Amino acid sequence: MNTQSPAKEKKYVPLIVAATIAIPLVVTLLAFSPKLSLLGDFDYHVLPMVNALINGSTFFILIAAVIAIKNKRIGLHRALMTSAIALSVAFLVSYVLFHAATEPTPFGGSGASKAIYYFILITHILLSAAIVPLVLISYVRALTEQFDRHKKIAKITFPIWLYVTSTGVIVYLMIAPYYPQ
């Protein structure tokens, strides 16, 4: 197995650190910023459904990627993981557009459903921030052919990424009835 030195990984560290800081910072700032209409008359309220579809697709792509690597289909695994990352970037762009242009939608449920919603939402948000460096480090280690180190971090990254993508769909399904029509 070809494993290059971790020195090859070092050139990616500034990018990983920048993304790890910038993404949660931008998302947090959006919560408190004035709303903008960046796309004119575009109906931004379609974006949460698009985001749920992206999250659901990413979930299944991640599962397919793990199956591919377990079957030693490295090229397919690489293509699926690159697709999962591309979908995550598309999700982020869509999410930022939506939250830059719309007011937050309060959850209208009560009782147990409200407690469940907020538990899922809070864990989803926290792990969404945590997944950014894990995905980037996993990807860089594969890119730099540090496969032993890639495999170690991927075992941590995979279940968290699956949780984030699946709870993204669940949060959408729970809040969707309360979106403005």
Strands, helices and their partners?
Elements: H1 7-10, H2 13-32, H3 47-70, H4 74-101, H5 111-143, H6 147-175
Question: How much helix, percentage-wise, in residues?
Answer: over 70%
Main β-sheet, in a few words? Answer: none
Category from helices, strands and their pairing = mainly alpha
Overall geometric form:
globular
Mean pLDDT: 91
Q: How far is the N terminus from the C terminus?
A: 55 Å
Tell me the number of helical segments per DSSP (H or I, 4 or more residues long).
Answer: 6
| Share of β-strand residues | under 5%
Determine Rg (CA atoms, Å).
18 Å
Explain how this protein is built.
- By secondary structure, the protein is an all-alpha fold.
- It has one domain.
- Helix content is 76%, strand content 0%.
- The protein is built from 6 helices and no strands.
- Helix 3 (47-70) runs antiparallel to helix 4 and helix 5 runs antiparallel to helix 6.
- It is globular, with a radius of gyration of 18 Å.
Summary of the model, kept short:
The chain is built from six helices and no strands. With 181 residues, it is mainly alpha-helical.
